[in-house]
Amino acid sequence: MSTTTAPFAEVASSNAALRAFLHGLPGVDRVGADARAAMLGTRSIKTTAKAKAIDLAISMVDLTTLEGADTPGKVRAMCAKAVHPDPTDPSVPRVAAVCVYPDLVATAVRALDGSGVKVASVATAFPSGRSSLDVKVADTALAVAAGAAEIDMVIDRGAFLSGDYLKVFEEITAIKAACGPAGGAQEGEHSAHLKVILETGELATYDNVRRASWLAMLAGADFIKTSTGKVQPAATLPVTLVMLEAVRDFRLRTGRVVGVKPAGGIRTTKDAIKYLVLVNETAGADWLTPDLFRLGASTLLNDLLMQRQKMATGRYAGPDYFTLD
Asked: In sequence order, which residues have a C-beta less than 8 Å from that of residue 318 and are 6 or more positions away?
């Protein structure tokens, strides 16, 4: 069953209809997007606002481990850090989510029980997306059954770049269905939010980023995400600007609100604050919440903690003060 937003139900009737709609979207002025992102990136904020921004950024982090050498012990340690990023300071907010492979979801769910930190899982043949739809749906169902509250899926970039938009649309709707009914159809039934990874580093143009953003939202995405972190370039300010404009315009036309997650390459507090300014100035303050904006950048957390302590004490912690990710 299609999850297309009602005003656009006819858009997904065929690949030709999707192509006509997506290629009819306003083109992106690349020079203008780059210039606006660069300009917003120079904005400075005062000390009190910076302290709040750091805590907000911490609360938006998806702490992630996606390596072949991941173990249950590593996941449990990461979960402990997610709940108490600085064990010596209980005022530090917890992060938004922990993201792991499907086979480690159950470990993360047990470790985070009652903490308020969500468990996310990559699925759909992450990071390439090169597999059959049956495998992708099974991968998703495994993670949801194990307790994942969020699924990060990757689109088939080959299909998208060859113009087979209907295939991409139908895969997203199928994965959305595998996430379970919105809110759970019956008491106690589990469902997960869907983040759709566009892998913007492989989409080549800002116009393609805008088209992929709209395609994902039309198919039912709860979030649109820049990158897997495995392809360069990953998140950039101009690409995130284009995606924020897309979710803003989508809400204006449909009333539905979709989140945004830049992921990969965001390493410093200065970087994180640039993204928060970009969100506020592009989509608006409504998106300045972990429910609608995430930062997929595990190495960022330690720098946020260091800068937070510097503001509180006037000095930086030693290099071994915070646990390594």
From this structure: none
